[in-house]
C-alpha cells in the first residue's frame, strides 16, 4: 500500500468488495468496513465493502474519523 500511496497521489481511498472470509486479511492492513450486505454475493457469501484511507500511508494519520 505504501507504494500505491506514494506512486499514485491522485488517489486518496481504496475501496474493495470482498466476503466475510477475507475481511480479516484486509483489516490487518488498516481497511475499515463501510458496508455489509448479507448474502450480497450469493447465499452464505456476504458482500463486505471495505475502504483504506491512503493518507495514513502518506502522512501517518487518517483523515477519516
Content of β-strand: 35-45%
- Please identify the structural class as seen in this structure: alpha+beta
What order do the strands of the largest sheet run in, or round the barrel if closed?
A: 1-3-2
| Overall pLDDT | 86
Stretches where pLDDT is under 50 for at least 5 consecutive residues are none
Order of SSEs:
HEHEEH
Main beta-sheet annotation: 3 strands, antiparallel
Computed Rg: 13 Å
Helix content: 10-25%
Helix count, DSSP H or I runs of 4 or more residues: 3
Q: Calculate the terminal CA-CA distance, rounded to whole Å.
A: 20 Å
User: What's the shape?
Assistant: elongated
User: How many β-strands, per DSSP?
Assistant: 3
Compile the SSE list and pairings.
Elements (H helix, E strand, L loop, with lengths): L1 H6 L5 E6 L4 H5 L4 E11 L2 E9 L1 H5 L6
Antiparallel strand pairs: 1-3, 2-3
Architecture overview:
The structure is a single chain. With 65 residues, the protein is α+β, with helices and mostly antiparallel strands. Helices cover 25% and strands 40% of the residues. It has helices spanning 2-7, 23-27, 55-59; strands at 13-18, 32-42, 45-53. Strands 1-3-2 form a three-stranded antiparallel beta sheet. The longest helix has 6 residues, at 2-7. It is elongated, with a radius of gyration of 13 Å. The two termini are 20 Å apart. 8% of the residues are buried. The model has no long low-confidence stretch (mean pLDDT 86).
Amino acid at each position: 500500500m505504501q507504494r500505491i500511496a506514494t506512486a499514485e497521489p491522485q488517489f486518496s481511498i481504496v475501496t474493495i468488495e470482498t466476503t466475510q472470509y477475507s475481511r480479516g486479511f484486509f483489516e490487518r492492513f488498516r481497511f475499515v468496513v463501510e458496508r455489509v450486505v448479507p448474502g450480497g454475493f450469493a447465499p452464505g457469501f456476504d458482500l463486505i465493502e471495505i475502504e483504506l484511507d491512503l493518507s495514513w500511508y502518506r502522512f501517518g494519520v487518517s483523515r477519516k474519523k
